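Hey all, sorry for the wall of text incoming. These are the two entities for the joint prediction.
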Amino acid sequence: MTSIDKMRSACAVANGLEILGDRWTLLIIRDLMFTNRREFGHFLNAGEGISTNILSERLERLQCHGIISKQPHPDHGKKNIYELTDQGIALAPTMIELTLWALDSIQNTFAPPQVIELMKKDKEKLLQLIRQRTVLVEVPL
Amino acid sequence: MTSIDKMRSACAVANGLEILGDRWTLLIIRDLMFTNRREFGHFLNAGEGISTNILSERLERLQCHGIISKQPHPDHGKKNIYELTDQGIALAPTMIELTLWALDSIQNTFAPPQVIELMKKDKEKLLQLIRQRTVLVEVPL
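and here's what came out:
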């Protein structure tokens, strides 16, 4: 459980958005949930053009709220590895529903076919794979 | 289907967040989906402190993307009534999952008991009520 110091309202949606209501934050969560991106440089080069200072701030904030964890890279002393915590993994149903909405509602929107297939036909299986930290979309790093 | 002029990426999550990845936008959708707030002044006074210019810009953007519609108020010529379109209503599963996550993950987070009950025990019924444009949370306006 995370407490927020400056809570504007106790409403569940408002509180959730106080932490998550920012596209960069949710793009980092997408990378950690669906792809093999785990390092600062991976998020920076994910293609949406996040700046280094926004990325640092968002990673800090996500750790502070217990959604991601940071460990030193086993092979590179100066690098860190980021992972979703259980609380971060618990965002999977929200991310899945957002993706399904976007696929249905916005033109020229894509997701890897194997992920779409699972989202539409076996949501429970997809949730299970995400909970097991399976890399669903292997991207070049 | 909505097209976005300046799409940074075709990824479904990124595209969805290009439209929705902003807490004010999702708070307006919350008001329209769960409460009886339908007018500019209702959103302005919803308690989170949105400013008039941000509210105007977000309402314009939501209309532009086909998520809400605007009609003249039947009784007050100068006022408008906002409603979710079918594409806006289709965000219900995302909003429900976000709310459930916040209730589980953030301290001092509340939602009306009748809504929590439905979210946890009969999500299909809740989706049906939202699709029928039922006001689930009557707030003083």
